[in-house]
Structures are given as C-alpha cells and as structure tokens.
Amino acid sequence: MHFQWYPGHMTKARRMMQEDMKLIDVVIELVDARIPYSSKNPDIDELAKNKTRVILLNKYDLADKRYTELWKHYFEKKGYFVTLVNSKNGNGVKQVNEVVQKACQEKIERDRKKGILNRPIRAMVVGIPNVGKSTFINSFAGKASTKTGNKPGVTKGKQWIRLNKNIELLDTPGILWPKFEDQAVGLRLAMIGSIREEILNIQELAFELIKYLVQNYKGNLSTRYQIDETMDVLVNMNLIAEKRACRMKGGELDLEKAAGFIVDDFRSGKLGNITLEFPNQEEPQGV
Length: 287
Fold this sequence. Notes:
The chain is α/β, with parallel strands linked by helices. The chain contains eleven helices and eight strands. It has two domains: 8-171, Rossmann fold (3-Layer(aba) Sandwich); 201-286, Orthogonal Bundle (Conserved Hypothetical Protein Ylqf, Chain: A, domain 2). Helix content is 40%, strand content 14%. The chain has a six-stranded mixed beta sheet, with helices on both faces.
C-alpha cells in the first residue's frame, strides 16, 4: 500500500502554525499511544525547536500498558514532559495543567524576576488529524470549546481558548507532513484512522492488521471471532466474513465489509489493548 495525502489546507495550516509559534510559551503535542512515533509529526519538531514541549500520550486506554510506559520513558529521555490522557472520558486531563506549569517553571520564574506576575501561559495544542485534539481541548476546558468530529480535519481555523487565569490554549488544525519516507508509518496512521478512508484499500489494511495481531497478540483474534489463527490470513478473512454475515447480493462473501468490521474493532479496542510499534535502542519497530 502506498500512502500519499497532503491536501492544500495543510500547507496553509503549517504556515499559520509557524507564524503563531512566536506568540506561545509551550507546545502541547498529542500523539496516539498505540503509535506514538508514527503519530508524531516531524514538522512540529522543526517548527517548535526553541519551545518547551509537552507530549500527551492520548487514547492510552486502547494501547498496551507495557509499551505505553516504555514510550513515556523514551520521550522523557529526549527532554519532553510527558503524561497519559484519555481525552474521551477525561482520565489524566487534570494532570495536564500541572505538567504544563512544571514545564514552564523557568519561564514563570523569569517573568517573576521582571515583575511580570500572573501572565497566563500560552500553549499551542498540536497533533495530526484524528488524534483526539479537539476532544482533549473540550475535556480540558470543561465545555465544548471547539468543534469535534471523528473525521480527520474537522478543526479548520485557529482559536484561542482561555481556560483559567493560568493558561490559554491556541487550537490549530491537525496537520500531516508532506511525505511518508517510511510506508510503514503510513500504514500505522491508516490503521488508527488518521488518513482519509477514501484513499485506503480497507481489505489490505485488515490483511496487514491480522498478520500483525497473529504475530504479536496471539489469541486476540480467536477470542473475538472464534477462528483458528494458524490458518492463512485470507482463509480467516473469509471466516470472519461468514461469522459476521457479510454477504453481497447473490450470497457471495463481502470481504470489504468484513475488513471494515476488523479495522473498526481494532480502532474501538474490541480486539484488545494493542500497540502497533514499540521503542528499542535504535528506531521504533512494529507493523
């Protein structure tokens, strides 16, 4: 599968982000805890190289705990302030304020010495499409401050949100980078739903997902679908289609519909707590 998606509005969003960077004190970047490396936009590193950085491992409830802890240490070693959140139900969101205050301690101290008191910390919230950015902001602010949706690219413009006397947030549209050097990164992003469905081959996606689960999470597929994981992937796709009554007119099995079930079950956590990549000494490995 080859992934290439960089709509024109993303070029504009990147320019806007570059312009706004001089207004802010700290960058809060959301990454998906199931693919922390692949969902981290390398463009942000370039744009925010002189800024204090906070990483939120979002959707940690869907990821494998063992690897989430390893990822937390991985990013902390690189100098980021890191915390875990589930923006959907609000778990961990309250801790973000403390982490941001800690990250900006030097700046607060510098302001205090200059006699500047009580100036709110200005934070920019960034993240790739569909990583849960708007949901996080709504949860953090305690009200529906931004429009949210489960389709990539719902947040189109920028907006400041005053949370309290200590912090102001600048929301930004989700952006991907122009080219995936590594197609495996594109595959992982497709699996979590950060690439538009229209350009995906859902059957290939489900095929790759089954292969990965059989190799790394033995038993998850058989528990969910009552199949024999030692069988060929295509055989299992057919079995899942049969068990889910995915048929076209004329009674032929509808593998596309079955593939949609498999991918949706992964994304919603029905296939278990799964991480698609994990850190080692060199580069993260995974799907």
